[in-house]
Design goal:
heterodimer, A: 117 residues, Udp-n-acetylmuramoylalanyl-d-glutamate--2,6- Diaminopimelate Ligase, Chain: A, domain 1, five-stranded mixed beta sheet, 5 strands, globular, B: 143 residues
């Protein structure tokens, strides 16, 4: 799924990485505990979270993720957006709750695991 | 990767006062390892192990130092702090066990996965700790 499609499905605002909308991702995860992202995530390209701090971007960077979606209309600080920009990570912001946002993406075919077709 | 006669070394001081800058050294190491042409799998292992360690030093030990060396066979990460020490390493190694305060949890950490994760992503891990003196964690990732 293209990040542009994720943006569309979640009616999200692009906070940075507009030039990466054509980037393809094949799985996502939703988590507010960065400890658990580091422990359980494997090759998911997208992180949906309601947690807002610089460590969200660093965690995504460490896990080679390409897109972070802040849900529940959480607004990251300019510092967070700058860090994402520097790390080559797209930042989206959606008014949806985490459950709803995840459900929409899952329903549209973005699974929890990398597909190996 | 090209054969190295001398190990490549990186040193960082990890600031314990500033949670928002924690992980900065791991980001730099990740970049350097990419420049050295190491495989993404190795880089991922080093990144996660070191990042967890860096976060731990900030949360529990008011910072410390990180020393990384890369040679032909392995990457060694040494994280040293002058924190309170770990009273029971066996307990600290259990998944889900954490002594982190509630305020750390609201920052997205302190789930008790740090040390288990560091062990999981490294090929070898050693912890030397003394109460009231500090802790040194040495992790090796083989190439």
């Amino acid at each position: 799924m293209k990040i542009a499609r994720i943006r569309e499905l979640l009616s999200a605002e692009i906070l940075c990485g507009e030039d990466m909308m054509d980037c393809e991702v094949s799985s996502a995860c939703c988590c507010d505990m960065m400890s658990d992202v580091l422990a359980y995530v494997k090759d998911q390209g997208v992180l949906l979270t309601g947690l807002v701090n610089t460590q969200v971007i660093r965690t995504a960077n460490m896990m080679d993720m390409v897109c972070v979606v802040f849900v529940r209309n959480k607004m990251p600080t300019p510092e967070i957006i700058a860090l994402a920009e520097e790390s080559g990570i797209v930042v989206l912001r959606s008014a949806l709750r985490a459950y709803e946002a995840s459900g929409l993406l899952y329903h549209a075919g973005l699974g929890a695991h990398e597909s190996h077709e | 990767m090209k054969a190295m006669s001398e190990p490549i070394r990186f040193h960082f001081d990890v600031d314990g006062e500033d949670f928002s800058s924690a992980g900065g050294a791991s980001v730099i190491v990740k970049k350097k390892l990419r420049q050295l042409g190491l495989s993404p799998e190795i880089i991922r292992k080093v990144s996660i192990a070191m990042y967890e360690g860096e976060i731990n030093m900030v949360i529990h030990a008011n910072g410390g130092t990180a020393d990384i060396s890369v040679d032909d066979r392995e990457i060694t990460i040494v994280l040293a702090d002058r924190g309170p020490g770990i009273p029971d390493i066996g307990l600290a190694m259990q998944e889900g066990y954490s002594t982190a305060k509630e305020n750390i949890r609201t920052l997205g950490f302190g789930a008790g996965m740090g040390l288990p994760n560091m062990k999981k992503y490294s090929d070898e891990m050693q912890i030397e700790t003394e109460i009231g003196v500090g802790t040194t964690v040495t992790m090796k990732i083989r190439l």
